Task: structure prediction
Amino acid sequence: MTTGWSIYVIFLVALNIGGAAWLLWWTAKRRPGDPPSDATSHHWDGDLTEYNKPLPKWWINLFWITIVFGIGYLAWYPGLGNFAGKGGWSSRGQLAAEQAAAEKQLAATYAAYANQPIDAIARDQGAVTTGRRIFANNCAMCHGSDARGAKGFPNLSDDKWQWGGAPEQILATVLDGHQAAMPPFGAALGGDANITATAVYVQSLSGLPVDPALASAGKATFAGICAACHGPEGKGNPVLGSADLTDDYWLYGNRIEDIRGAIEKGHNGQMPAWRLQLGETRSRLVAAYVYSLSHRQ
Result:
Protein backbone atom coordinates (compact mmCIF):
# COMPACT_ATOMS: atom_id res chain seq x y z
CA MET A 1 0.00 0.00 0.00
CA THR A 2 1.38 3.43 -0.91
CA THR A 3 1.91 6.15 1.70
CA GLY A 4 -0.95 8.20 0.28
CA TRP A 5 -3.45 5.35 0.53
CA SER A 6 -2.17 4.53 4.03
CA ILE A 7 -2.80 8.11 5.18
CA TYR A 8 -6.26 8.00 3.60
CA VAL A 9 -7.17 4.77 5.43
CA ILE A 10 -5.88 6.09 8.77
CA PHE A 11 -7.81 9.35 8.33
CA LEU A 12 -11.00 7.50 7.39
CA VAL A 13 -10.76 5.16 10.40
CA ALA A 14 -10.02 8.02 12.80
CA LEU A 15 -12.90 10.06 11.36
CA ASN A 16 -15.35 7.19 11.87
CA ILE A 17 -14.26 6.44 15.44
CA GLY A 18 -14.17 10.12 16.39
CA GLY A 19 -17.54 10.71 14.76
CA ALA A 20 -19.10 7.80 16.63
CA ALA A 21 -17.69 9.04 19.96
CA TRP A 22 -18.89 12.60 19.32
CA LEU A 23 -22.36 11.43 18.31
CA LEU A 24 -22.64 9.28 21.43
CA TRP A 25 -21.53 12.17 23.69
CA TRP A 26 -23.75 14.74 21.98
CA THR A 27 -26.94 12.74 22.06
CA ALA A 28 -26.50 11.30 25.57
CA LYS A 29 -26.16 14.54 27.55
CA ARG A 30 -29.07 16.69 28.69
CA ARG A 31 -28.74 20.44 28.44
CA PRO A 32 -30.30 23.26 30.47
CA GLY A 33 -33.68 24.16 29.06
CA ASP A 34 -34.37 20.72 27.57
CA PRO A 35 -38.01 19.68 28.16
CA PRO A 36 -38.60 16.82 30.57
CA SER A 37 -38.60 13.34 29.13
CA ASP A 38 -42.39 13.13 29.23
CA ALA A 39 -43.10 16.50 27.60
CA THR A 40 -43.15 15.60 23.92
CA SER A 41 -46.79 16.57 23.32
CA HIS A 42 -47.31 13.34 21.38
CA HIS A 43 -50.54 11.67 22.56
CA TRP A 44 -52.75 8.98 21.04
CA ASP A 45 -56.14 7.70 22.08
CA GLY A 46 -56.15 10.07 25.03
CA ASP A 47 -53.90 8.00 27.32
CA LEU A 48 -50.92 6.91 25.15
CA THR A 49 -47.95 9.28 25.43
CA GLU A 50 -44.61 9.17 23.62
CA TYR A 51 -41.64 9.89 25.90
CA ASN A 52 -38.16 11.13 25.05
CA LYS A 53 -36.07 9.34 27.62
CA PRO A 54 -32.28 8.96 27.36
CA LEU A 55 -30.65 5.58 26.86
CA PRO A 56 -29.85 3.60 30.02
CA LYS A 57 -26.38 4.23 31.43
CA TRP A 58 -25.29 0.62 30.98
CA TRP A 59 -26.16 0.82 27.30
CA ILE A 60 -24.19 4.04 26.79
CA ASN A 61 -21.24 2.61 28.71
CA LEU A 62 -21.34 -0.45 26.47
CA PHE A 63 -20.99 1.83 23.45
CA TRP A 64 -17.96 3.51 25.06
CA ILE A 65 -16.41 0.14 25.83
CA THR A 66 -16.90 -0.87 22.18
CA ILE A 67 -15.11 2.28 21.00
CA VAL A 68 -12.21 1.72 23.41
CA PHE A 69 -12.01 -1.92 22.33
CA GLY A 70 -11.90 -0.86 18.65
CA ILE A 71 -9.02 1.56 19.34
CA GLY A 72 -7.12 -1.15 21.22
CA TYR A 73 -7.79 -3.66 18.46
CA LEU A 74 -6.41 -1.29 15.81
CA ALA A 75 -3.34 -0.63 17.99
CA TRP A 76 -2.63 -4.35 18.38
CA TYR A 77 -3.58 -5.65 14.92
CA PRO A 78 -2.75 -4.11 11.51
CA GLY A 79 -5.80 -2.09 10.54
CA LEU A 80 -4.42 1.43 10.04
CA GLY A 81 -2.88 1.53 6.58
CA ASN A 82 0.78 0.50 6.69
CA PHE A 83 0.87 0.38 10.49
CA ALA A 84 1.85 -3.19 11.34
CA GLY A 85 0.31 -3.23 14.83
CA LYS A 86 2.04 -3.72 18.17
CA GLY A 87 1.23 -7.44 18.26
CA GLY A 88 3.20 -8.21 15.10
CA TRP A 89 0.35 -10.37 13.74
CA SER A 90 -0.12 -10.89 10.02
CA SER A 91 -2.25 -13.28 8.00
CA ARG A 92 0.89 -14.45 6.21
CA GLY A 93 2.61 -15.19 9.51
CA GLN A 94 -0.39 -17.06 10.84
CA LEU A 95 -0.60 -19.08 7.63
CA ALA A 96 3.09 -19.94 7.85
CA ALA A 97 2.70 -21.03 11.49
CA GLU A 98 -0.33 -23.20 10.68
CA GLN A 99 1.47 -24.72 7.70
CA ALA A 100 4.51 -25.48 9.85
CA ALA A 101 2.30 -27.19 12.43
CA ALA A 102 0.52 -29.18 9.73
CA GLU A 103 3.83 -30.15 8.11
CA LYS A 104 5.13 -31.33 11.49
CA GLN A 105 2.05 -33.49 11.96
CA LEU A 106 2.32 -34.86 8.41
CA ALA A 107 6.02 -35.56 8.88
CA ALA A 108 5.20 -37.73 11.88
CA THR A 109 2.50 -39.53 9.87
CA TYR A 110 4.77 -40.23 6.90
CA ALA A 111 7.96 -40.87 8.90
CA ALA A 112 7.70 -44.64 8.32
CA TYR A 113 8.13 -44.11 4.56
CA ALA A 114 11.02 -41.65 4.66
CA ASN A 115 13.95 -42.71 2.46
CA GLN A 116 12.31 -46.07 1.71
CA PRO A 117 12.81 -47.56 -1.79
CA ILE A 118 9.93 -46.87 -4.16
CA ASP A 119 9.40 -50.51 -5.06
CA ALA A 120 9.30 -51.44 -1.35
CA ILE A 121 6.70 -48.76 -0.60
CA ALA A 122 4.67 -49.98 -3.60
CA ARG A 123 4.26 -53.37 -1.89
CA ASP A 124 2.58 -51.70 1.13
CA GLN A 125 -1.13 -51.43 0.33
CA GLY A 126 -1.67 -48.75 2.95
CA ALA A 127 1.13 -46.64 1.49
CA VAL A 128 -0.23 -47.09 -2.02
CA THR A 129 -3.68 -45.98 -0.85
CA THR A 130 -2.16 -42.88 0.73
CA GLY A 131 -0.15 -42.20 -2.42
CA ARG A 132 -3.30 -42.50 -4.51
CA ARG A 133 -5.00 -39.84 -2.35
CA ILE A 134 -2.05 -37.48 -2.71
CA PHE A 135 -2.07 -38.16 -6.45
CA ALA A 136 -5.79 -37.38 -6.66
CA ASN A 137 -5.30 -34.05 -4.89
CA ASN A 138 -2.30 -32.88 -6.91
CA CYS A 139 -1.76 -34.87 -10.11
CA ALA A 140 -5.21 -35.95 -11.30
CA MET A 141 -5.94 -32.56 -12.86
CA CYS A 142 -3.51 -33.44 -15.67
CA HIS A 143 -3.20 -37.23 -15.61
CA GLY A 144 -6.82 -37.98 -14.71
CA SER A 145 -8.24 -39.65 -11.62
CA ASP A 146 -7.34 -43.06 -13.06
CA ALA A 147 -3.84 -41.87 -14.11
CA ARG A 148 -4.57 -42.77 -17.75
CA GLY A 149 -3.81 -39.26 -18.94
CA ALA A 150 -5.18 -37.53 -22.02
CA LYS A 151 -3.84 -35.98 -25.21
CA GLY A 152 -0.64 -34.24 -24.20
CA PHE A 153 -0.61 -35.81 -20.73
CA PRO A 154 1.07 -39.22 -20.34
CA ASN A 155 -0.74 -42.40 -19.38
CA LEU A 156 0.91 -43.55 -16.15
CA SER A 157 -0.81 -46.92 -15.95
CA ASP A 158 1.00 -48.58 -18.86
CA ASP A 159 4.62 -49.60 -19.40
CA LYS A 160 5.58 -46.70 -21.71
CA TRP A 161 7.94 -44.26 -20.02
CA GLN A 162 9.28 -41.18 -21.77
CA TRP A 163 11.74 -40.39 -18.97
CA GLY A 164 12.29 -43.94 -17.74
CA GLY A 165 10.13 -46.19 -15.59
CA ALA A 166 12.66 -47.31 -12.98
CA PRO A 167 11.63 -46.48 -9.39
CA GLU A 168 14.22 -43.74 -8.89
CA GLN A 169 13.50 -42.26 -12.32
CA ILE A 170 9.81 -41.93 -11.45
CA LEU A 171 10.72 -40.32 -8.12
CA ALA A 172 13.06 -37.87 -9.89
CA THR A 173 10.25 -36.92 -12.26
CA VAL A 174 7.86 -36.25 -9.37
CA LEU A 175 10.42 -34.32 -7.33
CA ASP A 176 12.03 -32.16 -10.00
CA GLY A 177 9.72 -32.33 -13.01
CA HIS A 178 10.73 -32.30 -16.66
CA GLN A 179 10.64 -29.94 -19.61
CA ALA A 180 9.72 -32.00 -22.67
CA ALA A 181 10.48 -29.59 -25.49
CA MET A 182 9.99 -30.70 -29.09
CA PRO A 183 11.38 -27.79 -31.14
CA PRO A 184 9.62 -26.67 -34.34
CA PHE A 185 11.31 -27.93 -37.49
CA GLY A 186 8.99 -26.47 -40.13
CA ALA A 187 11.58 -23.99 -41.39
CA ALA A 188 14.46 -26.48 -41.18
CA LEU A 189 12.62 -29.03 -43.31
CA GLY A 190 11.95 -26.47 -45.98
CA GLY A 191 8.35 -26.90 -47.03
CA ASP A 192 5.13 -28.87 -46.68
CA ALA A 193 6.28 -31.73 -48.89
CA ASN A 194 9.26 -32.56 -46.66
CA ILE A 195 7.17 -32.15 -43.51
CA THR A 196 4.56 -34.54 -44.83
CA ALA A 197 7.16 -37.08 -45.97
CA THR A 198 8.87 -37.01 -42.58
CA ALA A 199 5.51 -37.44 -40.81
CA VAL A 200 4.68 -40.42 -43.03
CA TYR A 201 8.04 -42.02 -42.23
CA VAL A 202 7.38 -41.51 -38.50
CA GLN A 203 4.04 -43.30 -38.94
CA SER A 204 5.80 -46.17 -40.68
CA LEU A 205 8.12 -46.65 -37.70
CA SER A 206 5.20 -47.86 -35.60
CA GLY A 207 3.82 -50.13 -38.30
CA LEU A 208 1.00 -47.89 -39.51
CA PRO A 209 0.02 -48.36 -43.19
CA VAL A 210 1.67 -45.62 -45.26
CA ASP A 211 2.73 -44.72 -48.77
CA PRO A 212 6.13 -46.44 -49.22
CA ALA A 213 7.41 -43.75 -51.57
CA LEU A 214 6.62 -40.94 -49.16
CA ALA A 215 8.08 -42.90 -46.24
CA SER A 216 11.28 -43.48 -48.19
CA ALA A 217 11.53 -39.76 -48.98
CA GLY A 218 11.03 -38.86 -45.32
CA LYS A 219 13.62 -41.34 -44.05
CA ALA A 220 16.56 -39.23 -45.19
CA THR A 221 15.12 -36.09 -43.59
CA PHE A 222 14.48 -37.99 -40.36
CA ALA A 223 18.06 -39.29 -40.29
CA GLY A 224 19.47 -35.81 -40.85
CA ILE A 225 17.38 -33.90 -38.32
CA CYS A 226 15.21 -36.05 -36.05
CA ALA A 227 17.62 -38.90 -35.31
CA ALA A 228 19.74 -36.60 -33.13
CA CYS A 229 17.10 -36.90 -30.38
CA HIS A 230 14.96 -39.89 -31.34
CA GLY A 231 17.86 -42.08 -32.44
CA PRO A 232 18.53 -43.54 -35.89
CA GLU A 233 15.85 -46.19 -35.34
CA GLY A 234 13.37 -43.79 -33.73
CA LYS A 235 13.40 -45.54 -30.35
CA GLY A 236 13.86 -42.33 -28.40
CA ASN A 237 16.13 -41.52 -25.48
CA PRO A 238 14.88 -41.45 -21.85
CA VAL A 239 17.78 -39.20 -20.87
CA LEU A 240 16.51 -36.50 -23.23
CA GLY A 241 12.84 -37.37 -22.81
CA SER A 242 12.52 -37.97 -26.55
CA ALA A 243 9.63 -40.29 -27.39
CA ASP A 244 9.93 -43.81 -28.75
CA LEU A 245 8.34 -43.55 -32.19
CA THR A 246 8.33 -47.27 -32.88
CA ASP A 247 5.64 -48.32 -30.40
CA ASP A 248 1.87 -47.82 -30.52
CA TYR A 249 1.75 -45.04 -27.91
CA TRP A 250 1.23 -41.51 -29.18
CA LEU A 251 1.11 -38.70 -26.65
CA TYR A 252 -0.23 -36.16 -29.16
CA GLY A 253 -1.96 -38.49 -31.59
CA ASN A 254 -0.87 -40.62 -34.58
CA ARG A 255 -2.88 -38.97 -37.34
CA ILE A 256 -0.86 -37.40 -40.12
CA GLU A 257 -2.20 -33.99 -39.02
CA ASP A 258 -1.02 -34.58 -35.45
CA ILE A 259 2.47 -35.63 -36.47
CA ARG A 260 2.77 -32.83 -39.04
CA GLY A 261 1.78 -30.32 -36.36
CA ALA A 262 4.40 -31.69 -33.96
CA ILE A 263 7.12 -31.50 -36.60
CA GLU A 264 6.17 -28.09 -37.93
CA LYS A 265 5.27 -26.27 -34.69
CA GLY A 266 6.79 -28.45 -31.98
CA HIS A 267 5.48 -29.12 -28.50
CA ASN A 268 6.41 -27.76 -25.10
CA GLY A 269 5.19 -30.23 -22.51
CA GLN A 270 6.04 -29.51 -18.90
CA MET A 271 5.85 -31.73 -15.86
CA PRO A 272 6.06 -29.38 -12.82
CA ALA A 273 8.36 -30.12 -9.90
CA TRP A 274 6.60 -31.14 -6.67
CA ARG A 275 9.57 -31.14 -4.30
CA LEU A 276 8.57 -27.90 -2.56
CA GLN A 277 4.83 -28.57 -2.44
CA LEU A 278 4.90 -32.20 -1.36
CA GLY A 279 8.32 -32.77 0.13
CA GLU A 280 10.38 -35.87 -0.52
CA THR A 281 8.43 -38.40 1.57
CA ARG A 282 5.02 -37.59 0.08
CA SER A 283 6.62 -37.52 -3.36
CA ARG A 284 7.89 -41.04 -2.64
CA LEU A 285 4.34 -42.16 -1.85
CA VAL A 286 3.07 -40.68 -5.13
CA ALA A 287 5.93 -42.29 -7.05
CA ALA A 288 5.18 -45.62 -5.37
CA TYR A 289 1.53 -45.36 -6.36
CA VAL A 290 2.45 -44.58 -9.98
CA TYR A 291 4.98 -47.41 -9.97
CA SER A 292 2.34 -49.82 -8.65
CA LEU A 293 0.02 -49.06 -11.57
CA SER A 294 2.36 -50.75 -14.04
CA HIS A 295 3.66 -53.38 -11.59
CA ARG A 296 0.46 -54.98 -10.36
CA GLN A 297 2.26 -57.93 -8.83
About this structure: The mean pLDDT is 90.
